[in-house]
Please model this.
Amino acid sequence: MKYKITAPTTLKASVKLPASKSISNRALILNALSYSPYEIENLSDCDDTEVMVKALNSNDRDFDIHAAGTAMRFLTAFLSKIVGEWTITGTERMRNRPIKILVDALNALGARVEYIDKEGYPPLRIFGSALQGGEISLSGSVSSQYISALLMIAPTMEKGLTLHLEGNVISKPYIRLTLQLMAQYGVQATWEGATIRVRPQSYTPVPFTVESDWSAASYWYEMAALSRGAEVELSGLFKNSLQGDAAGAALFARLGVRTDYRAQGVSLKQVQHETKKLHYDFVNEPDLAQTFVVTCAMLGVPFHFTGLQSLRIKETDRIEALKTELRKLGYLLTDNGTGVLAWDGARCEPEAQPVIATYEDHRMAMAFAPAALVRKEGIEIADPQVVSKSYPRFWDDLQAAGFTIESQTENEA
Model:
């Protein structure tokens, strides 16, 4: 199936954003570790969170988390301290996403986690038991989810955890988010230099409400940037958010989107911008990269983006996916193989009837859909259902904002 999306002449929208997936999935683990009697309020209804809820509420010993990366990392660590024998697997792509760094760390801390098939990758067999803990070193340059997974179970370890982060630490805001949420559940940690320390202590159950998702907001910022005279209201966002992707508001200001903070959320308005070329290091906000790559291309603003090394191991190789799909639209991007993606304004002949492939990646679909605001003929998106991974109501919200969405099977013209 594919969608053909055409845009309204002027974008005027009021949107109730989904709850933050990043906060929801961490809160679920912390709620379980604190044996909380409280239900989490405003929990995300996305696929990734639903598999977490199902796993944590299940009496099964075998878990299939499908394409949910956070669930794979967080549950691997969580199950390693729950007495019993467990298996965890996922989609074919998930079975090819590396997890060796986390498994090695857990085993060094007293866990017993084994590979069922290919070494370094899921599926895993986990023999859960009390963990000794202690002091380890871990590369900070691959995925902050490994670090967050270890930190959340750290206070339950006999010796706690002293974690030395080696090299360039990516996605620091996600690590800070984890520590801030742990603090809300009564666990204190210290982060000095490259070392994070969590002593043995107990979580305290607390009522918890999840805030709206700044990552989801980025697609509406993109739409505001691409639509002359756009006005968009986004509810549930806060200026002092725990989410690192809130940094997108300041970056979008350079592309002509003004943010006004209200009591119930934010108001976006398109204004003039004078950015001739956008340079940015996305090491702390990798999930915003696809949004800004497509936005800049559609605006004709050359860019040089660094800090993208983790995009290679996401739902797909996002760097290659962006290069391939933007080439269909006539844009020639380059990368250096080490986390840099750039566009100097080079163009090529676009395909006559391009269909954007989504690679089982929700962010590919949502980053490219706003291109309909620039392309008079609209944009076609293959496998649009992938948005359910983080923003199930995305297409409904687009239609409510005036977009026209036609559903077609792959063999329809």
The chain has two domains: 2-18+212-408, 21-198.
